[in-house]
Each structure stands twice: as structure tokens, then as C-alpha cells.
Amino acid sequence: MAANATDTPTAQLIFRDELVNAGILARSAVDGLYHRSRTFENIVRGVEAAASAAGEGRAEPMLYFPPLMPRSVFELTDYLRSFPDLIGSVDTFVGSDRDHAALLQVADEGGDWTQALTPSEVVLCSAACHPLYPSLTGVMPTGGRTFELQGYCFRHEPSVDPARMQSFRQYEYVYVGEPDGATEHRDSWLDRGQDLLGSLKLPVDRVIANDPFFGRVGRMLAANQKETALKFEIVCPITSDQSPTAIASANCHLDHFGRPFSITTSDGEPAHSACIGFGLERIALALLKTHGLNPDRWPSGVRSRLWP
Amino acid sequence: MAANATDTPTAQLIFRDELVNAGILARSAVDGLYHRSRTFENIVRGVEAAASAAGEGRAEPMLYFPPLMPRSVFELTDYLRSFPDLIGSVDTFVGSDRDHAALLQVADEGGDWTQALTPSEVVLCSAACHPLYPSLTGVMPTGGRTFELQGYCFRHEPSVDPARMQSFRQYEYVYVGEPDGATEHRDSWLDRGQDLLGSLKLPVDRVIANDPFFGRVGRMLAANQKETALKFEIVCPITSDQSPTAIASANCHLDHFGRPFSITTSDGEPAHSACIGFGLERIALALLKTHGLNPDRWPSGVRSRLWP
């Protein structure tokens, strides 16, 4: 999800303080990393249940992914090319007793002990649907397949905005198959997603959007993505009416995943894919902003939708 | 939790295959990293609910931690000294367009592109209770405080054993206060934990244990920990009757956290702490092993305990 053009740090700090004072989130030593209360987690689980109900009968059995994914899979997604500043690569220690003693000496002297580490075979999950694709290598049936999944994602973008967490969950519906099927999935789920979020009485809107591609080349990629209307966001005011926050996004990936993961349609072409991702923490925050910090007092129609 | 003295890889592979064939877990390209089905996640959530009920009225409001924690907090836990081989340090990219181009060239040539990364301000969570301690710096009330919390932990120990995941959740009750209070917490929760797991009809046992301290010095630390009976595990056969798996563990930390995080008792001494941690994925696997791969057919007393 793209950074807002006009961030409003004062409003962000005020809302963050309100959440902390109400005991809904607690800050850690790092911006964008929070301890969450049961109240917050219950809202997240309610949104999960509502997202699940909205897709009832429309996808294969749900998958839950862990917060990590294989490095080999990450490398095939090409995420490193587009979003290097957001990644989280995991290092560990594989040395001897002697190496360990040297590492500790560096650490004790306040030095950079991570120099002694080695890249592990895992990285932090970059997007909830990335771990799915390697399991699909091969030929898709005619009409494609639709998946429902959820997982923790990482974005290295420390911010005072409570809606810009470094560690957060996406709930996704993903289609893999023919190009037409991908577009149809994206468009029908935009409608369905907007209905779902509207039924939670959130003042949502739909906008053409672009991903926060890195650097000079990235600016061209972003402009191109916007021109070709591949990505839409469902936005809702959280800390700014002028710059509402993306709480869901729906994208056509073209053959961006089909090609590297060798997924083809029945006629042998690289499969296309598309997904809608609901940002569970952001929807929870939008609900708290819109309906107030005490879920017991939310409109009964919203409560019954979240906690049937 | 310590590695078993006699691992039984054949039985582990067989059980892993059974779980995969039943659609309960799906393998990824990395050992110890699984996609989880709704069946598996529902069991985990049932165990969460049972662990919560067992501590009803005994702790402050529940906290949920994200899979990451501040590096500054990790450094104070001294985990790097004891378990360097298990850690996950998170690197990211903070360079320029030119640096990025160089990184991509290395990646495209199959080289180690992680050399161009920089340590971020976060690491993977080493134990569920670690993020708690910095919030307690100061003086504890007489009698101490008890916390209930949950979070994803990382251990770099790739294994074919489905019960040795790299990414898993711990549900903990943590005490911080006087030394006597810490011992009492550990002992009473060992009883309560054994009752809870027994009520799920798991054939559990209680054993004195040690953490898997690293290297030569670690062997002495482990022997000392066992001699002084600081750590107990509640174990249950999963892939071996001879080497049952730890599915919960309860430890006295002495002042291991009180001292570095400057937490004191009311008389100014470094606070002691103790915790019980329930391994949610391991308990789920113990249930699947003991009662079969179809939770619909589990004993009704077990089902009503998990899904009241």
C-alpha cells in the first residue's frame, strides 16, 4: 500500500496516544511495533470472520501462513527489485565456539555483532500470497483456482502512524488462472470488499492506486501501474480525511507470479493472478476511529457482523 | 525446549506425511515451516481458549505480541550468549538507487545479495515473554504481578520433526516480583498446566529439563540448570514413546530479566521472574497424535474443553 502523499503526523500521534491511553495498543521501543490487547485482537478476529463469510463457498479451504517464508520463494517473487527498502532478511549464527566468543566480544564492546551472522533459509513474509505460488507450479485447470489465506507480513517502514505497522496481517482471496478470470476476480472482489466494509459502516471509497516501488525506476513503474489501472485500493479516513488510508487493495498481477513459478493455463500460457487483500489491523483501526474506542458501544449491526 | 537425546527421524517423517496427507499441514521448501489448515488453526485456537480459561482471574489483561521485537530489547535478554544458533536477526536495505542496482546485479549473478543489507531495529521474537520485560522497568508492587500473553517465536532449528517448527506460538503466564512468588508461580502453574493437558486426555508427564545452551560453556550451564531444578517440562509422546516431546515448560529465571531491565522488588532487590509457556502448535500435534487426525471424532470431553 502506497505512502500517503500528505502524511499528517500530528493527527497520527494523537490517534496513537488515544489507542495507547485506552489500553488498546501498547508501544514498544520501535515505531510501528505494538503489543495488542485482547480488545484489539477480538476486533481482528471479528474482521477475519466477516472476511471469511464474504467469501463463503468461493474459494478452496483456508490456509494460514507463518510470518516467515523460504528465501528461495522470496527471490522468485522479484520483490527485491521493486521494494528493497521494505524487506526483512533473516540472519542466524552457524559458527563454532570460537566464533561465538568473538561475536560476544564485539557485542560486549557495543559493536555490530551481526557481521558474524549468516543468511538463513528464511525471510520475513513480504505479502500474504507469496508463499502460495510455489505450491501451484504446473498446469491450472480451465477456469483457474481461487484461494483463501491469511498471514503476517513485514514492511520495514517505521512510522508514528498506528496504521503503518511493521508487522501486520493480510487476509486474501487469490485467483490463479486465465487473464479474464484474474480481471473478473479483482473486479468482483472490489465490489464484494466494498460491500463488506460498507456493511461495517465504514465510510469507504475506491481509488486507483500504485505500489510504493523503490527509486527512480520505481517512479516509472508506479506511473505505469496507475495508467493501466492494475491496482485499486479501498480507502477509509483514519488519521486524515484528505488522505484516507488503504484498508484493502485489489490487484491484477498479470503473469508476474505465473511466469517465475512456472504456473500455466491449460493452453500452456503463463497463468495470470489477482488478489484482494484485507489489512486486518488497518480495518480494526478504521473501526475504532469510526465507531469509537469502546467496541461494546458500536452499532449493533456492526457488532453482529463481526461477532455473529 | 531441549532437543531430544534420541531423535527418531523415521517416526517423525511418518507423522509428518500423515499430517500432510490428511491436509492438516502443508510443507514448504524449508523444513520446519508449514502452511496450516483451518483444522489445525481451529485446534490452536481451542488450546488458546483452554489455556485462557485455566488462568481466568489469575493474571492482568491478555497481551498479544507480534512476531518481531526491538533489537535493543533482544540484546538485553542475553539470548545471544546462550542460544546464538537459534536467533533470527532482521536485515533490510537502506541504500541508494546505485546501491540497489549493485545489489540486483549480485542477485542476478546468483551471489549473496544480503551483503548489501543493514541490520534493522528489529529481530525475530526469541521467546514470547521477552518483549514484556522492558515495559516493567521500575519497582514491582509487593506480591509481584502476573501477566498472560501470546506470540509467535522463532527458533532456527530446521528439522523433519513436525513438532520442531521454526515459527510457532507460545501462550505464557509470567510472574515478576519476589523470589518466593516466582517459585510459587512456577510450581502452581506446573500443576495447573498438567491438569489442563490431562483434561485434554493427553498422556503427559513432568520432567526436570534444561535449555539447549550453545557450545562448551553451554553444556555446563545446562548441567547446572538441571542440578538446580530451575526448569521443568510437561512432556507427551508425539513421535516417540521413549523421547516424549515437551509441550509446555515452566521455568524460574531468577533475576535473569529483573537485573538487565532494571525491575526491582519493593525492597530494592532485582526482581525475580518465572513463566509457564504452552507450545500451541505442539499441543495441537499431541492432540492429533493421541486422538487421531479427525477432530470431529475426538472424545466429547476434549472437544467441549477446546470449543466450549
From TrEMBL, chains A, B:
InterPro entries: aa-tRNA-synth_II, aa-tRNA-synth_II/BPL/LPL
Matching SUPFAM superfamilies: Class II aaRS and biotin synthetases
Source species, domain of life: Bacteria
Entries under CDD domains matching the protein: Gly_His_Pro_Ser_Thr_tRS_core
Domain named Aminoacyl-transfer RNA synthetases class-II family profile: residues: 151-308
Protein name, as recorded: Aminoacyl-transfer RNA synthetases class-II family profile domain-containing protein
